[in-house]
Amino acid sequence: DRTRINKRAVEALIKAGAFDALEPNRASLVASIGLAFDFADSQLAHADQGGLFDDVDDSHAASTQEPPLVAADEWSIRERLSLEKTAVGFFLSGHLFDQSAEEVRRFAKRPIADLLDSREPQLIAGIVSDLRIVNGQRGRVALFKLDDKTEVIDARASEELFNAHRELLKEDELVIVQGKVQPDRFSGGLLVSVHQVWDLAAARCRFGKFLQVDVNGSVPPVAEVLRDFPSRSIATEHGELTQGLTVRLRLHRDEVSAALDLGAAVRFYPTDAAIARWSAAARDGSAQVVYE
Question: Among 55, 87, 183, 275, which residue is least crowded by beta carbons within 10 Å?
Fold first, then answer.
């Protein structure tokens, strides 16, 4: 009944997970909203129509058959959770860290819940929240929280560092930071003084060794990926630094396999989209960054 509910309301309910028990693929449900409303209108229009021979005619039964859902790729964890937050104001079905947790733990091994006071810099990964700029004793500083689902820790970065990485330090974004963890005399918990910041793509360049791509006879689109996702150059205090990952192809044929390194000249910038491009051309979708 369109007088009681409209497409926008149904879409919001789908994004909030209200129909997950009927169909877990929310992308497919959203893509099928128009079809569902058309079917409902058709059913309403024919609700009071019938014929003398309806009990022996299959045409009416066929007209009441629900149409299949529109096929659609499932949303990623981040996309699903972001749409949940848009619909209801908070995350319901998971944590943003879930999407990258398995990969991140290969180089940022210690969860926030296991961090200890230490004079040595520590590598910490988490989702940014409660970001704000305040006036400190030594100038303006950025204060925020990092959440990796195991625990939340307060973090502090200088104004200079924040300005240099403003595009990374945003609400609900995954960052990997390096800094010293010390007791916070105000909260009684721990505080990390951040010295360096990376997003996941930059962290792959910093801590990864290479991208390993399994192939099974077909040649991956090396030139296309290098063109669309070229390595990047950044200025550092030690000079210009090239950010990118090399590629190792792992060839499979029958019971035999061999590894082929494409060399230092074949470097690409490993964004999620770039990794997905390699995965699409890989054997069984196997393309992953090797860290150790």
Answer: 55
